[in-house]
């Protein structure tokens, strides 16, 4: 087994750097391994003896692996462009994936619910801005959702407050409130 590896390495090295051997193609080298003795030889023609040898093709890049599944896609857009503003006209609202990256404001007393991952799969890092105009806003998590940050997730004392809701892990968000 060691002999096979050493000979194969020598053959590949000599063909790669061009020491006295021709390469079967610009992108590959063909080696033939004897089925009984494990002796490996270089084949300049790319052919091996079918009954007594096993053909080994060695490419420059190696074999291609399987392609994995695509990862989650985040919200479109960036914070370098204008942010979409959505004004709530309801007293109860549950966030949707389309709210990612938006500024949600309210002129009526509103309870905003952050849904569990099982209902809406926001990617970690999702940012949603919350703006209190002239009414009370309460941020609450659905069952199983933790909202960290300020000791209370409400905007009830001063008009024109701004809060930032960011998903930090599965079913975990942070809410940062800024006073006017």
Structure report:
This protein is mostly beta strands and 180 residues long. Helix content is 9%, strand content 37%. Strands 4-6-8-12-13-10 form a six-stranded mixed beta sheet, with no helix packed on it. A four-stranded mixed beta sheet has the order 5-7-9-11, with no helix packed on it. Strands 2-1-3 form a three-stranded antiparallel beta sheet, covered by helices on one side. A hairpin with a 2-residue loop joins strand 12 (161-169) and strand 13 (172-178).
Rg estimate, integer Å: 32 Å
Distance between the termini: 76 Å
Poorly predicted regions are: 1-25
Helix content: under 10%
Domain module tally: 2
What is the CATH top level name of the largest domain? Mainly Beta
Got a strand count? 13
Query: What is the overall pLDDT average?
Result: 76
The class by helix and strand makeup works out as: mainly beta
Neighbour order of strands in the largest sheet: 4-6-8-12-13-10
The major pleated sheet works out as: 6 strands, mixed
**Secondary-structure element order, N to C:** HEEEEEEEEEEEEE
Q: What form results from the Cα inertia axes?
A: rod-shaped
CATH architecture of the largest domain: Sandwich
Please give the count of helices.
1
CATH topology of the largest domain: Jelly Rolls
Classify the beta-strand content into a percent band. Answer: 35-45%
């Amino acid at each position: 087994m060691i002999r096979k590896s050493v000979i194969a390495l020598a053959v590949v090295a000599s063909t790669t750097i061009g020491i006295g051997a021709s390469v079967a193609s610009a992108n590959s080298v063909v080696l033939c391994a004897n089925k009984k003795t494990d002796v490996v030889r270089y084949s300049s023609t790319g052919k091996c003896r079918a009954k007594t040898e096993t053909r080994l093709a060695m490419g420059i890049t190696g074999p291609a692996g399987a392609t994995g599944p695509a990862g989650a896609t985040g919200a479109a857009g960036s914070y370098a462009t204008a942010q979409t503003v959505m004004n709530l006209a309801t007293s109860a609202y549950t966030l949707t994936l389309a709210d990612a990256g938006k500024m949600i404001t309210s002129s009526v007393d509103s309870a905003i619910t952050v849904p569990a991952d099982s209902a809406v799969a926001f990617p970690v890092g999702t940012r949603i801005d919350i703006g209190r105009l002239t009414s009370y806003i309460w941020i609450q998590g659905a069952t199983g959702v933790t909202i960290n940050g300020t000791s209370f997730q409400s905007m009830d004392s001063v008009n024109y407050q701004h809060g930032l809701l960011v998903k930090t892990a599965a079913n975990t968000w942070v809410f940062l409130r800024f006073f006017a």
